[in-house]
Amino acid sequence: MAVKGIILAGGEGTRLYPLTQAVSKQLMPVYDKPMIYYPLATLMLTGLRDILVITTPRDLEHFRHLLGDGSQLGIQLSYEVQAHPDGLAQAFILGKGFIGTDRVCLILGDNIFYGHNLATSLRQVAERDHGATIFAYRVRDPERYGVVTFDKGRRVVSIEEKPAHPKSNFAIPGIYFYDNRVVEIAAALTPSGRGELEITDVNRAYLEMGELHVEVMGRGIAWLDTGTHDSLLQAQNYIATLESRQGLQVACLEEIAYRMGYIDADRVQEVGERMNKNGYGQYLLALLKEERGEYP
């Protein structure tokens, strides 16, 4: 069975009002690229090529215009509408037909991941053909997130959703891997007190079956949640600093597709020439020159 990807890019983005009153949060810029480029890049680096974008009726055509069907990147993109933001687990109900009999990785459209060996570790997790895998990331303010507690053997002991008194400092970032049973589990959920189908309840179902794995993201990995004005600014500054210091693009989709063997140099050249008046296009052209041994 293959692993398919879902990017959940719905919601109303009320914490970012008035910015998001006219445009999706996941279309907002994070420095020099739309926010959705970052989770899409993460899925592509993991080796996923069949990806569903779930968004609102208002924003559907904007995402189609930005990303198309994915063929220009050597991947396949499809789209589904989430009429109402009824919880993260609703993604598996809306995506049932897309998932079919395969495994699935869900990533939130406002989460950015970056760091050394990240792609390698995600690919290893994607190869796990049974159960569910979540991640743990140490944060200063775990009460803002889903919190996981685990023992010394990294076996999950408990999961809590935004607890007032967290049992650990490990938050659960917005990327999750599941086997095909997630479709059935999500369909059987009842809404929480918030009126939503909670991803925490999905994870608890796997925990009760003894099939929930946790992987700890170490100090070399950055996880950025861009759901507030302050966190969006922090993410923009982080990406700007990295790119300025290293001269490398973060989440350059064409570069990733080229490195993964999904597209050829001619396609990279075409995009670079079309966008040669900005840093993104110039970066792609410089990448090809460097590969040919042509340095400034």
Characterize the structure shown:
By secondary structure, this protein is an alpha/beta fold. Helices cover 34% and strands 23% of the residues. It is built from 11 helices and 14 strands. The strands form 4 sheets. Strands 1, 4, 5, 6, 8, 11, 12 and 13 form an 8-stranded mixed β-sheet that branches. Strands 2-3 form a two-stranded antiparallel sheet. Strands 7-14 form a two-stranded antiparallel sheet. β4, α2 (60-67) and β5 form a beta-alpha-beta unit. α10 packs antiparallel against α11. The longest helix has 18 residues, at 229-246. It is globular.
Summarize the structure.
With 296 residues, the protein is an alpha/beta fold. The chain is built from 11 helices and 14 strands.
Q: How are the SSEs ordered, and which strands pair?
A:
Elements: E1 3-9, E2 29-30, E3 33-34, H1 37-46, E4 50-55, H2 60-67, E5 76-81, H3 90-94, H4 96-99, E6 103-108, E7 111-115, H5 118-126, E8 132-138, E9 146-150, E10 156-161, E11 170-171, E12 175-178, H6 181-187, H7 199-208, E13 212-216, E14 221-225, H8 229-246, H9 253-259, H10 265-274, H11 279-291
Parallel strand pairs: 1-4, 1-6, 4-5, 8-13
Antiparallel strand pairs: 2-3, 6-12, 7-14, 8-11, 8-12, 9-10
Helix pairs in contact: 10-11
CA radius of gyration is 19 Å
Structural class: alpha/beta
Largest sheet: 8 strands, mixed
Low-confidence parts:
none
Proportion in β-strands: 15-25%
Q: Which shape, going by the Cα principal axes?
A: globular
For the secondary structure, the number of strands is: 14
Instruction: Report the average pLDDT across residues.
Output: 94
* Range of helix content: 25-40%
Task: Write the element-wise H/E pattern from the N-terminal end onward.
Answer: EEEHEHEHHEEHEEEEEHHEEHHHH
For the termini, the CA-CA separation is: 46 Å
Put simply, the count of helices is 11
